[in-house]
Amino acid sequence: MAATFEIRSPKAGKYIWVLSSQGRILAISEEYNRRSLAEEAIVLFQMAAVNAPVVDTTEPAASTASSKLARVTGRALAKAVVKSGRAIETVEKAATGRTR
Q1: What is the pLDDT of residues 73-88, one digit of tens each?
Q2: Does domain 4-50 have CATH number 1.10.8.640?
Q3: How buried is residue 14: exposed, middle or buried, by Cβ count under 10 Å (0-12/13-18/19+)?
Q4: From 86's CA, which of 14, 22, 46, 70 has a CA 20 to 30 Å away?
């Protein structure tokens, strides 16, 4: 069974929408003063939900080998820059594959 939106009026002059599926409430909107605003909010919710990514904030981000390598390379480059101006030239030559 597909999910459905219902427009409800919990009190006179107030409107909300409820998204439900298989007898379970999935989302409830805030109160709107006009029915047309509730209908517009449904359309906006539908459009946003289609492309919404799932972000899991309960787990720390996995450390990848490439990000670790980038940090190590960055440290090595930073140390080289601090130690000598010539080290910059050496790193640039190695990176571009050119010599002067």
Answers
A1: 555 544 444 444 444 4
A2: no
A3: middle
A4: 70
Supply the pTM of this predicted model: 0.54
Portions of the chain given CATH number 3.30.160.160: 4-50
Residue pLDDT, tens place only, 29-68: 999 999 999 999 999 999 888 888 888 888 776 655 565 6
Encoded tokens for 25: 């409430």
Q: And the tokens for 36?
A: 């047309």
Going through 9-82 in order, the beta strands assigned E by DSSP cover 16-21, 24-28
In terms of phi and psi (left: phi > 0; alpha: psi -120 to 50; beta: otherwise), the region of 28 is beta
Instruction: Tell me which residue of 2, 4, 3, 28 sits closest to 15, measured CA to CA.
Output: 28
Task: Tell me the C-alpha distance between 25 and 10, whole Å.
Answer: 16
State yes or no: pLDDT of 1 exceeds 70: no
